[in-house]
Design brief:
Elements: E1 2-7, H1 16-31, E2 36-41, H2 52-58, H3 67-85, E3 88-94, H4 102-111, E4 118-121, E5 124-127, E6 133-139, H5 152-162, E7 167-173, H6 179-197
Parallel strand pairs: 1-2, 1-3, 3-6, 6-7
Antiparallel strand pairs: 4-5
Helix pairs in contact: 2-3
This protein binds flavin mononucleotide.
Flavin mononucleotide (FMN) binds near residues 94, 97, 140 and 144.
Length: about 200
């Protein structure tokens, strides 16, 4: 089993989403002690956005790219290869202003590539990143589970599903900015979700 862990907290140290993602990996490795693990920490190694230069590089034929364009495309190629090689993807996902952190959005923009990770067929779009389990460690300062304010879960289901990743397991740690009791309760709820996901 190859595990790819993506940490999207802006905090290099002490991120709750990273902590819950680490707990998921501990459980996966208990199931398979020989599992490989690649950790990509988006705070330590920030990804570039899909800006005008990136789009120009991607839409230029490989043989005609400048060295700078080739280097820009190579960043996304490496991210795509990592997710293609993974059997299990673990995402640490804080809620920032009701959405996902910009770094996670940059990762998603990098791995979503027509003809490589999805394609359009006569029957509609087809995701090509299939056969993967995805665990998502969702951390929030407030409480949003099941509420309209949780725009993350519909978005993540849509975009990951579009890419072929439909076996999704959501672990919630909420109320983390609601005082020490809120943190205790939020992390206990995440443990309960974890136990259920690995039952
Ligand atoms: C820039 C920013 C925006 C945030 N926006 C929200 C929000 O919209 N809703 C919410 O419940 N918590 C929000 N929070 C709180 C975080 O979701 C919470 O602190 C979470 O634990 C952060 O993840 P981390 O501990 O992995 O860094 C925000 C925090 C930051 C830093």
């Amino acid at each position: 089993m190859n595990i790819l862990q993506i940490n999207a907290s802006a905090r290099r140290q002490g991120g709750h989403s990273t902590g819950v993602a680490d707990s998921i990996v501990v459980r996966l490795r208990a199931q398979d002690p020989g599992a490989g693990l690649l950790v990509r920490d988006l705070a330590s190694d920030p990804l570039p956005p899909q800006d005008e230069e990136a789009l120009a590089a991607l839409t230029t034929a490989a043989a005609e790219r400048s060295p700078e364009q080739a280097a820009r495309v190579a960043i996304d190629d490496a991210l795509i290869a990592e997710v293609q090689a993974a059997d299990v993807v673990v995402l640490g996902v804080p809620m920032y202003n009701f959405g996902v952190p910009v770094q996670l959005k940059n990762w998603i923009d990098a791995i979503a590539r027509a003809g490589v990770t999805f394609r359009y067929t006569e029957k509609g779009p087809q995701g090509l990143l299939t056969g993967k389990k995805v665990y998502l460690a969702l951390t929030r300062g407030g409480r949003h589970r099941g509420a309209e304010t949780d725009t993350q879960v519909p978005y993540l289901k849509t975009v990951l599903g579009f890419l072929g990743m439909t076996d999704l397991h959501f672990i919630y740690a909420e109320g983390l900015n609601m005082g020490p009791d809120g943190v205790r309760q939020g992390l206990a709820e995440a443990e309960a979700d974890l136990a259920a996901a690995f039952a």
